[in-house]
User: Fold this.
Amino acid sequence: MRTIILNQGNIIPDGQNNKLVYRFPNSVNLTDAYLAVSSVVMFYSWFNITSELNNNIFTYNWISGAGPAVTYTVNVPNGLYEISTLNQLLQFTMIQNGHYLVDNTGDNVYYAEFIVNASRYAVQINTFLVPLALPAGWSNPAGLVFPLTTFNPIITLPANINKIFGYVVNFATDQNLNNAYVPPVSPYVSKLANGTLSYISTTSPQVQPNSSVLLNISNIDNYYSQPTGIIYTIVPNVAVGEVISEKPPQFAWNKMINGTYNELRMTILGSNLAPITINDPAMTFILVIAQKEEISG
Assistant:
């Protein structure tokens, strides 16, 4: 058996850290050769929301005075997000737009929120009735213009980001004008007398679209796979930003295409089989190559 190591020095410097090239000191004949992963060390550093994944925008609307409802876009910067941080971003955007009040205890009051409903394995969206005037003892630091008609903000989830929350494409909550909305008989939406609307995911939230990444090696002879070079999957079993360290209990040998080589190329793919950007280049992959007689005898 022969061991080869790919690390940060083998990365193609294109800013994505997902393509590594190992160049042999001399051309080698790898007829009847097999390759396997011996160990992997890398950081859990790939984002779940990016402009590249086209899942970085959602919207809400707001009614001021007698005007029509205006739609506001929430742009999510590329990053690794939990539902709680997306809720914080929604509320931060509402602060920037002046769409909040402060109650008599000094806490900000927002009229929409995302929360995790663990018992339902779902993301719950709550929207609340915006009042016609300032409640007693509250303050209005942003000078919010109150509507002439009570309403709930409409949260809309466009394509791709809807999967993060577990809703259908372009899902939208209801405006509930004058608190007149009557929800359908459904386990996924409910309404309280005070105008609060609650929605529950209809599918499992895919908070991390790339819950695992795949290693794809050039020159692998596997016509059962597409792409043909996939040899291993890495599932992060650590928190975001921590080190993933894997050592397979036994080698899963992959037949190589017979031929003479001067290099091997490895690409890290997402679950959609496209190269995925890895933000931290600190990584080490140890691969082993063996001849047929070494693994069959």
